[in-house]
TrEMBL record, chain A:
NCBIfam families: 3a0107s01c2
Keywords recorded for this protein, A-Z: ATP-binding, Nucleotide-binding, Phosphate transport, Transport
GO molecular function annotations of the record: ATP binding
Name by which UniProt lists this protein: Phosphate ABC transporter ATP-binding protein PstB
Source species taxonomy: Bacteria, Pseudomonadati, Pseudomonadota, Alphaproteobacteria, Hyphomicrobiales
Pfam families, sorted: ABC_tran (PF00005)
Origin species: Shinella curvata
InterPro entries listed in its UniProt record: AAA+_ATPase, ABC_transporter-like_ATP-bd, ABC_transporter-like_CS, P-loop_NTPase, PstB-like
ABC transporter domain segment(s): 24-266
Family from the record: Belongs to the ABC transporter superfamily.
From TrEMBL, chain B:
Superkingdom in the source lineage: Bacteria
Entry's family note: Belongs to the binding-protein-dependent transport system permease family. CysTW subfamily.
Protein name, UniProt field: Phosphate transport system permease protein PstA
Entry's transmembrane regions: 36-59, 228-249, 269-289, 295-319, 340-365, 415-434
Domain ABC transmembrane type-1: 224-430
InterPro entries listed in its UniProt record: DUF3333, MetI-like, MetI-like_sf, Phosphate_PstA
Keywords: Cell membrane, Membrane, Transmembrane, Transmembrane helix, Transport
Compartments (UniProt record): Cell inner membrane; Cell membrane
Statement: the UniProt record of this protein carries the keyword Cell membrane: yes
Membrane topology: Multi-pass membrane protein
From TrEMBL, chain C:
Source organism (scientific name): Shinella curvata
InterPro entries: MetI-like, MetI-like_sf, Phosphate_PstC, PstC_N
SUPFAM superfamilies: MetI-like (SSF161098)
Protein encoded by which gene: pstC
The name this protein goes by in its record: Phosphate transport system permease protein
Recorded coiled-coil stretches: none
Length: 271, 442, 494
């Protein structure tokens, strides 16, 4: 029983291959800022319950791609997106898709911690409140507590929930922002260089958190640091000059990439 | 868990199942969104509507002021009326004090066929002629006494009421004794129009005449000259002082209590009600220093003090916008601080400074309240020769005319407002062009 | 020598100083400019400044001091019986003397001699030369006038000599100090710096002038009318005093004026705040760049229109319109076609002032709203908030302190606004609550009390300064507080 036939192994692998399910699929995605083209026909799929890291030198389009995933680019004047991006089975650029609903399903955490100038409690409660997710005060209390726990911040702030969120340290603020995103119970969380403004200890905490969040959420993270990509992600996509150069398992990417440019970038020859 | 998409292009890929859709109150929230947006558009529409109404109200009432009804008829400068006893050789005063309105009246009566003994008729004829013929004919005769006894074709101003009637501003359906012009006069008016004797001319008087109690003869000449003097004074004083003060505060001043005080002070001065500057001018320049009341000089000084904070604030912003790298570059080459500022920073900031100055000047040009207090509300008929002579200003003239009861003054007031607005538009367009032409992005 | 000619001469000396200064520096350098501390132009400027500045100061002081000295000497020479007269009569006499003195200048010497022999003809002779004299001059006046002319002549000559000597001495001494190692540039720049500092103290001087001038006049007023009667009086009735009868003071109660000011300001804010705020929100959060580039400048045109134009608009358009529409409404409801809104009313003035204030509210709030960091906006939108939710729940709360500051600044403008209320609010100082009736304001009364004849000794004139200083302090407090709030707000996001 503890021996498996060759065929059985094959079958199990096949099954695993078939089990891969894609949360978001980007097909021929191009982005223009006015006359300037920022992304060239990117085809990138995001696997469910996986951390996908987007790496590449600055200005390569990785953040731009991230922002197309929950249509944050809509808020920029003169920005145009072509191609097709789906979330589950929905084309998110379809006119019938509502951007508010989309963003409730695809949350976002930004580069600089940006807590609202409100109390910690109100910061976390903001999303559930606007979406009407809590039926009662006790419901809301539960959501806030759960979200702060998921963000690993509960023990640090449970005694001062009604103090200002801007009074926290940088790392705590960023975890508060993650808790804020988590409170809406999105399916996907986008993170745009979430640790770039943090010190190493705070960074370690956030990375640990990302690792844990993977169980419940699909995560896409843009990062500057290749070490970070290696630490937190299972899949990595490398961007260069608005093109997707390579997308691969993180392990393979950092040991034996298919593309010469990826190799050069990882070896530190440019970037 | 996994499920093959129905979409053919995705057929090869496993796509995750779509979770159950949550109700996040979209319908209600979008209604609120639309409402909110509508309020915003309504607010802007409200503001623009009133901008339009204001301009429309002024222009519709005022555009007629640029034309004035004039009567052109042969006028007999009858010796009988002007100088019955032939005294003009010995008493030149005679020609000055002669009864010229009668000359005009008789001429018009002749054209209209009113008998010389029809007193009521003559009175009605007189009501069609502006009293300004007195000075007009006097000047003609004094300049050339030889025309006495001859008949000349002269163009002179029609009475303000006739002017209003001719422009269709008097409602002729009102009972005759409730309006300023009788049916008989309207009839004559039509005759005169048919014969071409009564016609509208471009109203040069509006721009060259001084104050007059007759609307048809009142003009903006004094006000325009007065405003011009004041603008010159403001420009000459406030630009150099404002720029010097800004340079000190922005480039040299140490950060201490005193400069902090100046800083707060300037910001507050910019917000002090303009009427307070009028009180200052009255107490300091007129009462204490003994400058003449109603003079453009005092007005200019008051407006200078009022404009200075605006110019200083604009200049400091312009200086601040010059990047520090320019200063470092100059200092690094061994230029002194003073040389750096005057050779590099100031020229680069100049477009911003000039734009701010023009806007400050435009503001000063439209300012009324302080000028009322220093006595520029005066009846000044003669164009002031120097800034020390009594004068008025454009906005003050508007104020005075706005307080006049006669209908024809409403037209003139609106016309004056149009002149003022045109000046302001020109200045602002100048400022915008300057900014466009020299705008620099660092 | 006239003052302008004298200043010209001093300027010429300065210019000459500049050239010889630069020439001297060049000569000292002997073709090797690097041996000089400063460029030759600075040596020239140094000499020129030393030639001009002290001389100009001398001229300035002299021009102020000399008439005072001459005036007092002439007055000291008045006959005893004239000196016994009241000050006002003496002033009149002095004015006559200076008129005669002016007249003397246009007469020939013989004519003047003739006048001294026959004083009675003086008035006619002077009038024939185009110099009017108020009354027949007393004999001592002719002599005083002659003295006056002589003294001003002497003074002018002395001044000319002194100024030229000072200018030349300054040029000479500074020329002497020129040496290759002399730091001319530092000296010149030091003097320039003093000039810059002087320019910036004008701001302080203006404030001091405002406070001091209004304060002294207001103190005169409070000597005649007790301060508490002014500040707490509820009746405004400053009956115009008969000429000279300063005792017949009326009642100077500030309260009704203040009530009108605040009421009209309140109505104006009621119009301006919602409209301005929503306009600002729409501009900064919703409008496309194209719409903004058209609508924003157009709204700002409202701020560039002089207030007198708004006043006229209120007087001839809005006021009559409200009056007529109220009559129509009344007629529809009660059948009685009489208007219940007066053409001049709190509503008319407040409404038009509100329109004037829209651009202030909107541009100040626009600045404040755009100062809210984009990150907060993105944070909220990224959570799936709609734009209006983001504005209402994140941006406005974050911008609130700044907006309050902006509204206080706007309120101070409403309080100090003059021309609209002068034309549209009415002149009756009444205390009542009906917005359809006229009320009056502090600024209207300042204008009313100061147009026409002024008598700086009567409370009817001086009360304007008491009103002015009240107005000044109200707006000052509003502004200082507003600036403080806004400054704190900006620091929060910088």
């Amino acid at each position: 029983m503890n021996m498996m036939s060759e065929a059985a192994v094959e079958k199990a692998l096949d099954k695993k291959m078939n089990d891969i399910s894609y949360k978001m699929i980007g097909k021929d995605v191009s982005v223009y800022y006015g006359e300037k083209r920022a992304l060239y026909d990117v085809n990138l799929n995001v696997r469910e319950n996986t951390v996908t890291a987007l790496i590449g030198p600055s200005g390569c389009g990785k953040s731009t791609f991230l922002r197309t995933l929950n249509r944050m680019n809509d808020t920029i004047d003169g920005c145009r997106v072509t191609g097709r991006i789906t979330l589950d089975t929905d084309d998110i650029y379809d006119p019938n898709i509502d951007v508010v609903e989309l963003r409730a399903r695809v949350g976002m955490v930004f580069q600089k911690p940006n807590p609202f100038p409100k109390s910690i409690y109100e910061n976390v409660a903001y999303g559930p409140r606007i979406h009407g997710l809590a039926k009662s005060k006790s419901d809301m209390d539960a959501i806030v507590e759960k979200s702060l726990q998921k963000a690993g911040l509960w023990n640090e702030v449970k005694d001062r929930l009604h103090e200002g969120g801007t009074g926290l340290s940088g790392g705590q603020q960023q975890r508060l922002c993650i808790a804020r995103a988590v409170a809406v119970s999105p399916e996907v969380i986008l993170m745009d260089e979430p640790c770039s403004a943090l010190d190493p200890i705070a960074t370690a905490k956030v990375e640990e958190l990302i690792h844990e969040l993977r169980a419940n959420f699909t995560i896409v993270i843009v990062t500057h640091s290749m070490q970070q990509a290696a630490r937190v992600s299972q899949r990595t996509a490398m961007f260069h000059l608005g093109n997707l150069v390579e997308e691969n398992d993180t392990d393979k990417m950092f040991t034996n990439p298919d593309d010469q440019r990826t190799q050069d970038y990882i070896m530190g020859r440019f970037g | 868990m996994s499920q093959v998409s129905t979409s053919p292009s995705m057929a090869t890929l496993g796509v995750s199942a779509k979770p159950e859709r949550r109700d996040i109150g979209l319908r209600r929230r979008y209604a609120a969104e639309r409402r909110f947006r509508l309020f915003g558009m309504a607010a802007i529409a409200f503001g623009l509507l009133f901008l339009f109404l204001l301009l429309f109200s002024v222009v519709s009432k005022g555009y007629t002021a640029f034309q004035q009804s004039m009567i052109t008829i042969p006028v007999e400068f009858s010796e009988q009326v002007i100088d019955k006893n032939n005294e003009r050789a010995t008493n030149p005063q005679k020609l000055v004090s002669a009864n010229y309105p009668v000359v005009a009246r008789n001429a018009l009566a002749k054209v209209l066929g009113v008998a010389e003994d029809d007193r009521a008729g003559l009175k009605a004829v007189n009501g069609m002629i502006s009293d300004s013929v007195r000075t007009q004919f006097r000047d003609m005769v004094v300049a050339n006494p030889a025309i006495i006894g001859t008949t000349q074709t002269v163009t002179f101003l029609a009475h303000g009421d006739l002017d209003s009637a001719f422009k269709g501003q008097i409602d002729l359906s009102v009972a005759e004794n409730n309006r300023k012009i009788s049916d008989k006069q309207v009839g004559w008016m039509n005759t005169l129009v048919e014969s071409g004797a009564l016609s509208k001319h471009f109203n040069t008087g509006l721009f060259v005449n001084g104050a007059s109690s007759r609307p048809e003869a009142a003009g903006l000449g004094v006000a325009v000259v007065g405003s011009l003097y004041m603008m010159l004074i403001v420009l000459v004083l406030s630009l150099p002082i404002g720029v010097a003060a800004s340079i000190y505060l922005e480039e040299f001043a140490p950060k201490n209590r005193f400069t902090d005080l100046i800083e707060v002070n300037i910001n507050n001065l910019a917000a002090v009600p303009s009427i307070v500057y009028g009180l200052l001018g009255l107490a300091v320049f007129v009462n204490f220093a003994g400058f003449p009341r109603s003079a453009a000089l005092v007005g200019g000084l008051v407006l200078t003090l009022m404009t200075l904070p605006t110019i200083i604030i604009a200049t400091r912003a312009a200086l601040k916008a010059v990047p520090p790298s320019i200063r470092s570059a100059a200092l690094g080459l061994g230029a002194s601080k003073m040389q750096t500022v005057f050779h590099h920073v100031l020229p680069l900031a100049m477009p911003g400074i000039l734009t701010g100055t023009i806007i400050g000047l435009a503001h000063a040009l439209g300012e009324t309240a302080p000028l009322l207090l220093i006595g520029m509300v005066a009846f000044v008929a003669d164009i002031p020769g120097t800034p020390l002579d009594p004068s008025t200003a454009l906005p003050v003239q508007i104020y005075m005319w706005a307080n006049e009861a006669e209908r024809a003054f409403v037209e003139r007031t609106s016309g004056a407002i149009m002149v003022l607005l045109i000046f302001l538009i020109l200045m602002n367009v100048g400022a915008i062009l300057l900014r466009r032409r020299f705008e620099r992005r660092w | 020598m006239s003052i302008s000619l004298l200043l010209l001469v001093v300027a010429v000396i300065g210019a000459v100083g500049y050239f010889i200064g630069s020439w001297r520096a060049n000569a000292l350098a002997g073709g090797k400019l690097s041996s000089l501390h400063s460029r030759p132009g600075y040596y020239g400027s140094f000499v020129a400044l030393w030639a001009i500045l002290p001389a100009v100061v001398v001229v300035f002081v002299w021009v102020i001091a000399s008439p005072i000295y001459v005036n007092s000497t002439i007055r000291a020479g008045f006959p005893e019986e004239v000196k016994a007269e009241p000050q006002a009569t003496q002033n009149l006499n002095y004015n006559m003397i200076s008129a005669i003195a002016r007249g003397f200048k246009v007469l020939t010497a013989e004519e003047r001699e003739a006048l001294f022999k026959d004083g009675a003809a003086a008035r006619d002779v002077l009038a024939s030369k185009g110099v009017p004299v108020a009354a027949e001059p007393a004999p001592y006046m002719l002599k005083s006038a002659d003295d006056l002319n002589r003294m001003t002549n002497t003074s002018s000559t002395l001044l000319s000599i002194l100024a030229i000597v000072v200018a030349t001495a300054g040029a000479f001494l500074s020329y002497r100090s020129i040496a290759p190692k002399f730091r001319a540039r530092n000296r010149v720049e030091g003097m320039m710096l003093v000039g810059l500092i002087a320019a910036s103290s004008i701001a302080i001087l203006t404030t001091v002038g405002i406070v001091a001038s209004m304060f002294t006049e207001a103190v005169h007023f409070f000597n005649m009318v007790p301060a508490w009667e002014f500040f707490f009086g509820t009746v405004w009735d400053p009956r115009f005093a008969a000429a000279g009868a300063t005792a017949s003071a009326g009642q100077f109660g500030l309260i009704p004026l203040l009530a009108g000011t605040l009421y009209i300001g309140f109505v104006a804010m009621l119009v301006a705040v919602p409209v301005g705020l929503f306009a600002a929100i729409y501009m900064s959060e919703y409008a496309s760049r194209h719409v903004r580039s058209v609508a924003k400048p157009l709204l700002e045109v409202l701020a560039g229109i002089p207030t007198i134009v708004y006043g006229f608009f209120a007087l001839v358009t809005v006021g009559p319109f409200l009056r007529d529409i109220s009559a129509q409404l009344n007629g529809l409801v009660t059948g009685n076609y009489s208007n219940f809104i007066q053409a001049q009313s709190v509503l008319t003035a407040g409404f038009v002032m509100g329109i004037m204030l829209i651009p202030y509210v909107s541009s100040l709030s626009d600045d404040i709203i755009t100062a809210v960091p984009r990150a907060l906006r993105d944070g909220s939108l990224g959570l799936g908030a709609t734009r209006s939710e983001t504005i209402k729940r994140v941006i406005l709360p974050a911008a609130l302190p700044g907006i309050v500051g902006a509204l206080l600044m706007t309120a101070s403008r409403a309080v100090g606004e003059t021309m609209i209320v002068v034309l549209a609010a009415g002149v009756a100082a009444r205390m009542q609550l009906n917005p359809f009736e006229p009320m009056t304001t502090v600024t209207v009364k300042i204008v009313n009390q100061l147009t026409g004849d002024l008598e700086f000794t009567s409370p009817q004139t001086l009360v304007a300064f008491a009103l002015g200083i009240t107005l000044f302090f109200i707006t000052l407090c509003l502004n200082i507080y507003a600036l403080y709030i806004v400054r704190k707000y900006r620091e929060q996001y910088e």
